[in-house]
Amino acid sequence: MESNQECQEAFEKVKQYLETPPVLIPTIPRKPLILYLSILEESMGCVLRQRDASRKEHVIYYLSKKFTNCKQRYPTLERTCCTLRLIQYMLAHTTWLIAKMDPLKYIFEKLALTGRIAHWQTALSKYDIIYKSQKAIKGSALAEKLAHHPLEN
Question: What integer is the mean pLDDT of 101-108?
């Protein structure tokens, strides 16, 4: 009898999940995006959000990715740049980057860049990214969780 009750409860949970509207929302034109980013040695996680008219943040996009063996050897700055290029939504919006480090300051303020860093400067110049120091805990915590549990390619 207990097993039937457990099955029914599980069925009700699945049914409720399927009837609930999706968590992700489409972007709102001309409003900035907020990117919470967490970069680890082997993986990354990010949450892209946008505020509505009432200033409540809604999730646009989640990403959790394990770096290839080659990219795991990149310095943190370059792993961060790899991640920023993955998010296509950022091409059409100003994006506030919330992260532990500001890769843009190093890339765009350094006078003489060589090799891959010069490549990243060119690649990221088409994005309108503004760095904001990491003060918001909720979005950062979710990005951190995604980074610690990456999806395999």
Answer: 81
